[in-house]
Amino acid sequence: MSAFERIRRPEYTGRNRCWPCTITNAALLAVLGAVAAVVWLPLAAAVLAGGGAGIWLRGYLVPYTPRVAPPLFDRLPISSPKSGEATGRGSIAGAGDSAAPDGEAVLGALLDAGVVTDDGEALALDPSFRDAWTDEQRTLRDADGEALAAAIESTTPEGVTARAQGTNGALILVEGSDGGVTLARPIAVAEAAAARALETTAPELSAAVRAGAVRPLRGFLESCPVCETEVVETTPRSCCGTTNPRYEDDRILACPSCDRRLYTFPA
C-alpha cells in the first residue's frame, strides 16, 4: 500500500465528504495560517499548503472531527452545503436492475418465506434468520476489502460488480446496470451477510428478491455489524454517517462507536 493510500480517507472525502468536518477544519487551518504569518510568511504558506492537502486527502486534520463537527456545525446559524446521498442511504439494491421487485413484493416474499413475521402490530425477524444473519456478520466483519467485495458479488444478481476502496475496505463501490453506490463498511457487511443468510434460510427466494431485501432488513439491526455495539435510534446530526447533517426529520439507526448511519427509516 502506498503512502498516499495510507493517508487518504475515502470514507470522508469525494462523494462521501463530510462538509461540516471540512469547513470546521478549513476554518481552524485559516486561523493557524494567520498566526504563522505573523511569525514568518513562508511558514504560513507551508502550514496552509500542508493543511489543505490533509483536508483534501482525509476530510479533516483534527482528531475526532467526524464525531465533533456535525453537532457543532448544526448549532451555527448557517446552512450546510448540499451534497450527494449519504453512505447510510445507499444499498446493494441501488445498483441492481430497475425492474427489481418493489418494496411490497419484497416484504410479501419475506413474509411467505417466514423470514419476517407479522403479529398484527409490528414486524419482526424470525429468530432463526436473525441467528444466521448474526453468524454471517461475524464471518464477514474480519474479511479484508477484496473478500468483502467478492461476498457482495456472489450474492447479487448477474452484472453487479463490487470493489474495495480505502484502508481494509472502508468503502465498497457496488456498480450495476442502474449505476453505482458507495457503501460504508458496516452497511456492506450487514447487507452481504443478510443476502448470505437469506440464501441458507430461504433458498426459494430469487437473487433479485434477496438483493431488494437487504436494505429494509437493516432496519432490524440490534448491534453494529462491525463492532457489535448496540445501535441507537437517533438523528443525522448526532453522527458523521451523512454528508449533510441538516436532515432534521430523518430517523436513523446509528452505531455510536463507529459514528456511522446504518439505516434511515422511511419518512
3D structure, described in words:
By secondary structure, the protein is of the alpha+beta class. The chain has two domains: 18-74; 87-219, no CATH class. Helix content is 44%, strand content 13%. The chain contains nine helices and eight strands. It has helices at 3-7, 19-39, 41-58, 65-74, 103-113, 127-140, 145-154, 185-201, 207-217, and strands at residues 116-118, 123-125, 161-165, 171-176, 179-184, 232-234, 252-255, 260-264. The strands form three sheets. Strands 3-4-5 form a three-stranded antiparallel sheet. Strand 1 (116-118) and strand 2 form a beta hairpin. Helix 2 (19-39) packs across helix 4 (65-74), helix 5 (103-113) crosses helix 9 (207-217) and helix 8 (185-201) packs across helix 9 (207-217). 40% of the residues are buried. Residues 5-76, 108-218 form the DUF8054 domain. Pfam families: DUF8054_M (PF26238), DUF8054_N (PF26236).
Largest sheet geometry: 3 strands, antiparallel
In N-to-C order, the SSE pattern is HHHHHEEHHEEEHHEEE
The separation of the N and C termini measures 42 Å
Task: Give the helix/strand class.
Answer: alpha+beta
Proportion in β-strands: 5-15%
Domains counted in the coordinates: how many? Answer: 2
Number of helices: 9
The residue ranges in which pLDDT falls below 50 over 5 or more consecutive positions are 77-88
Q: Average pLDDT across residues?
A: 82
Number of strands: 8
